[in-house]
Amino acid sequence: xxxxxxxxxxxxxxxxxxxxxxxxxxxxxxxxxxxxxxxxxxxxxxxxxxxxxxxxxxxxxxxxxxxxxxxxxxxxxxxxxxxxxxxxxxxxxxxxxxxxxxxxxxxxxxxxxxx
Amino acid sequence: xxxxxxxxxxxxxxxxxxxxxxxxxxxxxxxxxxxxxxxxxxxxxxxxxxxxxxxxxxxxxxxxxxxxxxxxxxxxxxxxxxxxxxxxxxxxxxxxxxxxxxxxxxxxxxxxxxxxxxxxxxxxxxxxxxxxxxxx
Lengths: 115, 136
Description:
A: three-stranded antiparallel β-sheet; B: six-stranded antiparallel β-sheet; globular
């Protein structure tokens, strides 16, 4: 397993945000990402407000509007290559129980609460 | 929540290997500019980049394109206009578009050959992009 430490983040758009937050146990569904990375639920250790976040994840800025954060259980796999320092995935749907949940909301608000 | 395709070129060449890759880019993009990926720093023309290579670097064909990336992130209209280099002790990861266009694929091939010609152990092998579970 990977060496992810501390807090993990999952960024999403409005629809994804509403679906995930609607349940007390957050469920991050595994899916096929663009490019040829494996099917999975993807997370990062890069928090909201990180410089160049969209470019480092190589996603549109519009996909960074909302974020979930939770405590790592050290059970995710790092992406192959150097981006595996900050990108991790589960190859199946990934559940986060309430005792691991840290925060969620618009990314700008979550960033503000972290400072 | 993740985009792009990661090509992992095994090499212990570090900053020197990155310089070889940047020379390839400059042949294709003579007005290329670079940006430290980990910090909000000003763009630097590729030819003016110092020898102290950053651990993560974005390279664009020109400054105007770099500004569009700042505004929009990875959107379809910017396909083929940014290469993301990430160094480690054992490899250079080159992150490009989900489906890299021809010019980007040509650059990847040339980078791989450039590192092979350096003769460093493990150089020149471009790993299939994607992820794999580590052993154990």
